[in-house]
Amino acid sequence: PQPVIQKERVLKRAPNSKLMLFDDPVNTRSYVARMLATICQLHDKDAFRVMNTAHQSGSCAVGTWPGERCELYANQMRDAGLIVEVEPID
């Protein structure tokens, strides 16, 4: 009899994306940091650093996540009144 050959199942991971936060003239810095901590689950210290960098430089990378999660965070941040953009990572 012929040997049975089983195909190996390969799971593909979703490509990662980067979430960018942009400074805006409307929201307070404490509100932005709180939203980063709440929505993106950043530690308070990291949320403050991201917020402050965006405030001083105009923008800052919040983090990288699989595409769907990054889009979810972006939508929640937009709903909270923040300016964000999702950038694909090559």
Overview of this structure, please?
The chain has 90 residues and is an alpha+beta fold. Helices cover 42% and strands 23% of the residues. It has helices spanning 29-39, 44-57, 67-79; strands spanning 16-22, 59-66, 83-88. Strands 2-1-3 form a three-stranded antiparallel beta sheet. The model has no long low-confidence stretch (mean pLDDT 92).
Topology (elements, then pairings):
Layout: E1 16-22, H1 29-39, H2 44-57, E2 59-66, H3 67-79, E3 83-88
Antiparallel strand pairs: 1-2, 1-3
Helix pairs in contact: 1-2
Structural class estimated from helices and strands: alpha+beta
- Please count the beta strands (DSSP E, at least 2 residues each): 3
Low-confidence stretches: none
Number of helices: 3
How many whole angstroms does the radius of gyration measure? Answer: 18 Å
Mean pLDDT: 92
The largest sheet is: 3 strands, antiparallel
**What's the SSE pattern?**
EHHEHE
- End-to-end C-alpha gap: 47 Å
Strand content: 15-25%
